[in-house]
């Protein structure tokens, strides 16, 4: 209801500045690439190599859990899973009650990248480029969701799986987990946007080390370079620690307290600051500010004098 009431105001403000509107337009149209770049999403769906699934569960807490589910192949992405992921991201873009997202792998491992069977099926350069554009679109939209997201890394996150972790706002690593950009071993570089995002997260020098040296990032190294934002309690910890998913939910909960429109506004202003030139980011921040100023959460906070609590 709150979002519906604010929608006319948001549309009006976006017409004035246009910056956030352009971000939303890029997002809704596939974000980075479209048909003019030679990308036909229906063709991708027709050629999708089968196997596995991407499962989405949305909870009343405002946290959704997205599970990469192909355990027999270490949760590697088949073609149909790439299509599944795009469809689940579309659902999350329209989730008005959402505040947070946890991305995990099934069976205590994160993701080993692309299924080699699927890769062999599209080994020609033309299909490879289409797959690259399709996954860049999807992971860019994942990062631009108005939700605060965290990758829950158990076991291994290899290749495209490592790239997937960078499409989340945060990364939590299990005590025995590893993130490794193994692309060089395959005679490749990241193609799903992972290199560009990695530079933003760890800096260009560390990114060169991780990509050029195919270094294994364990939790200690991850914390040192800023790729990891926290380490989960291991099975030897006290019983109160909970499962890895429960720990991730508890960790994320501290950053999503409050009404969904406010949390989504927080993500939007950070997103604009990350992606837009300063002048446009400032105008976008003003526009988003206008959607919550005088809103229910703001008026309730003023009435309860919660600023100094």
Structure, described:
Helix 4 (79-93) links the parallel strand 2 and strand 3 (100-105). The strands form two sheets. This protein has a six-stranded mixed β-sheet, sandwiched between helices. A two-stranded parallel sheet has the order 5-7. It contains 14 helices and eight strands. Helix 1 (2-17) runs antiparallel to helix 13 (278-292), helix 4 packs parallel to helix 6 (125-143) and helix 7 crosses helix 8 (194-202). The chain is an alpha/beta fold and 309 residues long. The relative contact order is 0.13.
Any idea what the radius of gyration is?
20 Å
**Protein structure class:** alpha/beta
In helices, the fraction of residues equals 40-55%
Outline: globular
User: Overall mean pLDDT score?
Assistant: 87
Record the strand order, biggest sheet: 1-2-3-4-6-8
The amount of beta strand, in percent, is 5-15%
Query: From N to C, what is the helix and strand string?
Result: HHHEEHEHHEEHEEHHHEHHHH
Q: Any low-confidence stretches, pLDDT <50, length ≥5?
A: 1-30
Count of helical segments?
Answer: 14
Per DSSP E runs of 2 or more residues, the count of β-strands stands at: 8
Give the CA-CA distance, first to last residue. Answer: 28 Å
Query: Biggest sheet: strands, sense, closure?
Result: 6 strands, mixed
List keywords for this structure.
309 residues; single chain; 8 strands; 6-stranded mixed beta sheet; alpha/beta; two-stranded parallel sheet; 12% strand
Layout: helices, strands, pairs:
Layout: H1 2-17, H2 19-28, H3 41-47, E1 53-58, E2 63-69, H4 79-93, E3 100-105, H5 116-121, H6 125-143, E4 148-153, E5 156-158, H7 160-166, E6 170-173, E7 178-180, H8 194-202, H9 204-212, H10 219-225, E8 230-231, H11 244-253, H12 260-275, H13 278-292, H14 296-304
Parallel strand pairs: 2-3, 3-4, 4-6, 5-7, 6-8
Antiparallel strand pairs: 1-2
Helix pairs in contact: 1-13, 4-6, 7-8, 8-9, 12-13
């Amino acid at each position: 209801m709150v979002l519906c009431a604010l929608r006319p105001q948001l549309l009006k403000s976006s017409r004035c500045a246009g910056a956030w509107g352009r971000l939303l337009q890029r997002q809704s149209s596939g974000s980075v690439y479209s048909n003019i770049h030679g990308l036909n999403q229906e063709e991708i769906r027709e050629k999708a190599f089968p196997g596995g699934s991407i499962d989405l569960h949305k909870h009343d807490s405002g946290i959704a859990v997205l599970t990469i589910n192909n355990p027999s192949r270490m949760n590697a992405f088949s073609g149909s899973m790439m299509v599944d992921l795009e469809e689940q991201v579309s659902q999350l873009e329209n989730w008005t009650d959402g505040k947070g997202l946890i991305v995990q792998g099934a069976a205590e491992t994160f993701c080993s990248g692309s299924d080699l069977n699927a890769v062999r099926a599209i080994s020609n350069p033309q299909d490879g480029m289409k797959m690259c554009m399709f996954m860049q679109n999807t992971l860019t939209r994942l990062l631009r969701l108005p939700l605060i997201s965290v990758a829950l890394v158990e076991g291994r996150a290899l290749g495209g799986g490592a790239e997937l972790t960078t499409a989340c706002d945060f990364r939590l690593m299990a005590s025995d987990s590893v993130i490794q950009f193994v692309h060089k071993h395959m005679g490749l570089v990241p193609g799903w946007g992972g290199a560009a995002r990695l530079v933003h997260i760890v800096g260009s020098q560390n990114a060169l080390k991780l990509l050029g040296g195919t270094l294994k990032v364990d939790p200690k190294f991850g914390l040192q370079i800023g790729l990891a934002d926290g380490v989960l309690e291991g099975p030897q910890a006290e019983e109160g620690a909970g499962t890895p998913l429960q720990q991730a939910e508890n960790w994320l909960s501290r950053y999503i307290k409050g009404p969904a429109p406010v949390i989504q506004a927080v993500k939007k202003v950070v997103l604009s600051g990350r992606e837009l030139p300063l002048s446009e980011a400032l105008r976008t921040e003003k526009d988003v500010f206008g959607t919550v100023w005088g809103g229910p959460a703001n008026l309730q906070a003023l009435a309860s004098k919660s600023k100094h609590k």
